[in-house]
Structures are given as structure tokens and as C-alpha cells.
Specification:
Layout (H helix, E strand, L loop, with lengths): L2 H8 L1 E5 L7 H10 L4 E5 L5 H11 L3 E5 L4 H10 L3 E3 L5 H10 L2 E3 L5 H9 L4 E4 L7 H9 L6 E4 L8 H5 L7 E3 L5 H5 L3 H13 L6
Helix pairs in contact: 2-3, 2-10, 3-4, 4-5
The protein binds 3-phosphoglyceric acid.
Length: 209
């Protein structure tokens, strides 16, 4: 199964901001316990690369890097074990480094021009970010019409109340968000809350046919 298939199977991408890599192993276990062995660890904190290394070394969690802005960060993410790399916007150098390193690039794109630019770089799955303020599910449905081969991973401002409207779209591979992995709860060591929220999100997924 390639990484795109793993995202499509999971249908949800917990977007994590980790303040202390010392919580990474417990976080991974909490996600596994919640039935969602996948995470995007952002480079917004210095703990990001070490957290990726700890989680990827377990072998039971698919780990990606988020908020990746430069080719150097791609290298750090891949060296740590990330198998997908998420960026808030579209960067040719980042996409090209991902290709060189053999990992999936998920760059941000929310307009037709941005989606077209992604296609020109050979990218067929984009992060639709920030989803809620960029027109939400209706905007994705409208963009999918001229770009039938493109798949979207909407992220940003999505929660339990709105996740379903995105998952219902055939053009949506998976939905990302931090609502399953609240930063303050992780920082407080309350991983049970992560498992609770993750399990609830997984339980609400439409059943595979
Ligand atoms: C991201 O990094 O993709 C978003 O900040 C996550 O968005 P959310 O916190 O609104 O879920």
C-alpha cells in the first residue's frame, strides 16, 4: 500500500503540535489505541523532527511531517522517518525535494490557479488549507469539477461538526485537523483524551463498502 492509499484508508489525519518530544511515544500509543495509527507532526515546534523519529521507529504508525516550508526541512523530516510531507502552500523546491527523497508531497492549494500549478509539478493530491475559511466543502466540490483527477485533503478549521461534509465528497482522500489531538492535553500528559477524541472520530466515519 503506498502512502496515498494509507491516507485514503485512514480517512483522518491528526495534525499535531508537540511541545515536548518526550510525549511522542505516548501520543503514538494513544492514536493506536484510538484506532487511527497515523499522524502529521508539524515542524512548528523544535520537537517536531525528534517526535517523528520516535513515532516512526515504533513501526506501527504512519508518520508525516507538517508545516514543511523548505527543502532542508524535507530532508530532516525524511531522515527522521516521515513518509509524507505537508506544506501550507505550494513550493516547487519542496515538492521536488520530496520527489527526490521518494516521499509523498501534500502541498496546499485552494484556488484553481494553485491546483493547476500543483498538477504542473506532478502533484495530484493537495492539502486544501485553510479549508473552513476557503469556502469549505462547497469550494472543494466546485474545484473538483474542472480537475476530476485531483484529490483533496482539507485541513484547517474542521471539527466533529463539519468533518462529515468533507468526507462525503468523492474528491476528498482524507480530512486533517487538530481537534483529535489538542495541544494543551498532550502537553499536560492527558493522552487518554487523545484516545477518546480519536476513537470518537473513527467511530463516526462512514463504513467502507
Ligand atoms: C494545519 O496545520 O493543517 C492546521 O493548522 C490544522 O488546522 P486546525 O487546527 O484548525 O485543525
Amino acid at each position: 500500500m503506498d502512502t496515498t492509499d494509507q491516507l485514503a484508508q485512514a480517512r483522518l489525519v491528526p495534525v499535531v503540535v508537540l511541545d515536548d518530544a518526550g510525549h511522542a511515544d505516548a501520543l503514538a500509543q494513544a492514536l493506536v489505541d484510538g484506532g487511527l495509527p497515523l499522524a502529521e507532526i508539524t515542524f512548528r515546534t523544535a520537537a517536531g523532527p525528534e517526535a517523528i523519529r520516535i513515532m516512526a521507529a515504533r513501526g506501527d504508525v504512519v508518520v508525516g511531517a507538517g508545516t514543511v516550508l523548505t527543502p532542508e526541512q524535507v530532508d530532516r523530516a525524511v531522515d527522521a522517518g516521515a513518509t509524507f510531507v505537508v506544506s501550507p502552500g505550494l513550493s516547487r523546491p519542496v515538492v521536488e525535494r520530496c520527489r527526490e527523497r521518494g516521499v509523498l508531497a501534500l502541498p496546499g492549494a485552494v484556488t484553481a490557479t494553485e491546483v493547476q500549478a500543483a498538477l504542473e509539478l506532478g502533484v495530484e493530491t493537495v492539502k486544501f488549507f485553510p479549508a473552513a475559511t476557503s469556502g469549505g466543502a462547497a469550494a472543494i466540490a466546485a474545484l473538483a469539477a474542472p480537475f476530476p483527477g485531483v484529490r483533496f485533503v482539507p485541513t484547517g478549521g474542521i471539527g466533529p461538526g463539519t468533518v462529515q461534509e468533507y468526507l462525503d465528497l468523492p474528491s476528498v482522500t482524507a480530512v486533517g485537523g487538530s481537534w483529535m489531538v489538542p495541544r494543551d492535553r498532550i502537553a499536560a500528559g492527558d493522552l487518554a483524551e487523545v484516545t477518546r477524541r480519536t476513537a470518537a472520530a473513527v467511530a463516526a466515519l462512514p463504513r467502507a463498502e
